[in-house]
Write a structure and sequence with these properties.
single chain; alpha/beta; binds NADP nicotinamide-adenine-dinucleotide phosphate
Length: about 290
């Protein structure tokens, strides 16, 4: 833990799912940090966190990154997956390579691989390689499917008692974003200067039918999982304005799940944080207000 007033940690993606959990965990530990945000109006909760210093910046704008990096030794790199994500994250890494940063913690994805048929896994692997090429210390966090993704279906679950996907019978060791943030926190605070790769999964691999059964048990009402076709999913996503590149990526992701490639269990959350990762039932109990 650092006691300096001047933050030496910069986090990005702090308005998002993993980044906001990381910001809260840093604040709970009284660790000063700087958060790069694109828009202060979207950073409402962050503004009030203990030890948070906000700086305006965008991965599209090198100078804003250079400014945000002043005095920073450790960074947490995250953006959402989009057609531009590889270019934007590489832009960030280029700026880092010019500064005083010693350690990059990058939020990647489970099974990241430059030869993967899944576009998200290829772009994450390309950014990982770019970071390796800087010669700086790195920690790559490779989480599996986020439990919090189900919050996108909270309204449907609440009012129509159903949710849909194209998962079939695939078992997935999905993980709570707060457990991912806890691993990120430990990596940022670690005094160890070895580079590491962590596979971040929950404690169990479950199918979407089992997800529905757990929701039904915890909420005390029948929730149904509807398995749809790729075409039906694409239509539903385009109707809500979901970008085509990301939608095609989701189809690839689920094809990868169908091969059983996301059912692997890792012990890394326990080994790094000393705490067992949350089960899906834990997640539903803690977010039940969103679903009922
Ligand atoms: N969803 C899953 O199941 C899953 C599983 C494994 C890995 N992942 C990986 O997790 C990452 C997404 O994590 P998340 O869900 O926590 O993200 P998220 O909630 O979508 O948040 C994305 C964050 O990135 C920021 N951002 C986007 N473009 C930016 C730019 N040009 N400059 C600076 N900041 C920018 C956003 O800021 P604004 O508030 O300004 O928009 C936001 O804070 C992706 O890389 C994805 O591949 C996801």
């Amino acid at each position: 833990m650092t006691h300096s007033i001047q933050p030496i940690i910069l986090i990005t993606g702090a308005t998002g799912s993993v980044g906001s959990a990381l910001a809260e965990q840093l604040a709970q530990k009284n660790i000063p940090f700087r958060a790069l945000v694109r828009n202060l109006d979207k950073a409402g909760n962050l503004k009030h966190l203990n030890g948070a210093e906000l700086v305006i910046g965008d991965f599209n704008d090198q100078q804003s990154i250079v400014n945000a990096l002043k005095g920073i030794e450790k960074v947490f790199l995250l953006s959402n997956s989009s057609e531009d994500a590889e270019r934007l994250q590489c832009n960030f890494v280029d700026a880092i390579a010019k500064g005083e940063v010693k350690h990059i913690v990058k939020l990647s994805q489970f099974a990241a691989n430059i030869n993967s048929p899944v576009r998200f896994l290829r772009y994450h692997a390309a950014v990982e390689q770019k970071i390796k090429d800087t010669g700086l210390q790195y920690t790559f966090l490779r989480p599996n499917l986020f439990m919090q993704g189900l919050l996108g279906f909270a309204g449907l679950i609440k009012y129509q008692q159903k949710f849909f996907a194209i998962a079939g019978d695939a078992k997935i060791s999905l993980v709570d974003t707060r457990d991912i943030a806890a691993v990120a926190l430990n990596a940022l605070l670690s005094r160890d200067n070895e580079s590491k790769i962590y596979n971040i999964t929950g404690p169990e691999a479950i199918s979407h039918k089992e997800i529905a059964e757990i929701l039904s048990t915890v909420l005390g009402k029948k929730i149904e999982y509807i398995n749809v076709s790729d075409a039906e999913l694409l239509t539903a996503l385009s109707q809500v304005g979901f970008p085509a590149w990301q939608a095609a990526g989701l189809i690839e992701d689920y094809a990868h799940y169908a091969l059983g490639e996301a059912a692997v269990l890792s012990n890394d959350v326990m080994e790094v944080t000393g705490t067992v990762p949350r089960t899906f039932a834990d997640f539903v109990k803690e977010y039940r207000a969103a679903f009922e």
